[in-house]
Amino acid sequence: MIQNPYIRLMRFDKPVGTLLLLFPTLMALLMATDGIPDIKSAVIFTLGVIITRAAGCILNDIADRKIDNQVERTKNRPLANKEISVFSALILFSFLAVFGLVLLYFLPVKTYVWAGLCIILMVIYPLSKRFFAIPQLFLGLAFSMPIPMVYANYGVNPFTDLNALLLFFANVAWTIAYDTQYAIADMDDDLKSGKIYTSAITFGKKVNFIVFSFNFVYLALLTILGFLNSFSYLFYVGLGINLLWFIYHYFAVDRFVGETGFKAFMQNIQIGWITLWALALGLIGMQAHKYQENLNLSQPIVSQPETQVVTNPEDLQNNQ
């Protein structure tokens, strides 16, 4: 276990959440550029994901510090056990916010509104656990906000681009699903506290079915994305593998055994990698399809000389 409380506060010792936020960002970068994003944008958005996730963890822990100290899994978080004061956490958050603004400076103005919405959702999410039955919805929206930001960065209106919309809503569904599994790990303590709502509590005995349904929506929207863009069959192979993962989770997760939910949550890292690589391979297939179409269009049409078919012997004699 890493001893530095500030590293733990920003979750730099637990990169799972960062990866889960990075996957949709990289997918959007690939889709918005037909598989060839520029290095500048890739670096800015990757750093932005790292900073945003760290800042979001600080806000979450500030809001939940009096609840976290009652939950077995979170009682040793730096704010919950008072290793760090709230004031110190806010100072660190301020530094991260400034760094984030510096990164935003290098992006087009059209991305600013999406960055602002992301910040608002980061604030709302931890607070929504007190009054909203499915706070994971706000997390899903927050974790999907890099997608319209990426498209806006390339001058595309994410409201009117079907690819952007499909990616966005697919990721919202997936985030709700895996964070519900994450919430199963703490469900007993959350119920005892009586101060917090989670989707795991709200869904009750139907939690596995509802999680599978959200995951199915995720796969269905990505399937439509692949069909509309003429992705290669390798994309659908990846989605098929993930379907097997989701079926396994449906039967393996026991809502009364928190460890099963946490294990399923962690396995979403593999699911994210599979989807990302499947998308990359699908885009290669799309480019090959476009290349073949352009090649066919560029080939000149060679006209054949006309040949006269003589069916009447008298016509043949006249021609001679």
What is the topological layout?
Elements: H1 5-9, H2 16-32, H3 39-68, H4 86-105, H5 112-128, H6 136-144, H7 146-153, H8 162-184, H9 187-193, H10 199-203, H11 207-228, H12 233-252, H13 258-266, H14 268-298, H15 313-319
Helix pairs in contact: 2-3, 2-7, 2-8, 2-14, 3-4, 3-5, 5-6, 6-8, 8-11, 8-13, 11-12, 12-14
GO molecular function, one term: 4-hydroxybenzoate polyprenyltransferase activity
GO cellular component, one term: plasma membrane
EC number: 2.5.1.39
Number of strands: 0
Order of helices and strands: HHHHHHHHHHHHHHH
* Average pLDDT reading: 91
Radius of gyration: 26 Å
- Percent in helix: over 70%
Low-confidence spans: none
CATH class: Mainly Alpha
CATH-defined superfamily: UbiA prenyltransferase
CATH architecture: Orthogonal Bundle
For the termini, the CA-CA separation is: 102 Å
CATH fold name, please?
Tetracycline Repressor, domain 2
Number of helices, counting only DSSP H or I runs of 4 residues or more: 15
Give the structural class. mainly alpha
Largest sheet properties: none
Strand content: under 5%
Number of domains: 1
Shape: globular
GO cellular component, one term: plasma membrane
Family: Belongs to the UbiA prenyltransferase family.
InterPro entries: HB_polyprenyltransferase-like, Prenyltransferase, UbiA_prenyltransferase, UbiA_prenylTrfase_CS, UbiA_sf
EC number: 2.5.1.39
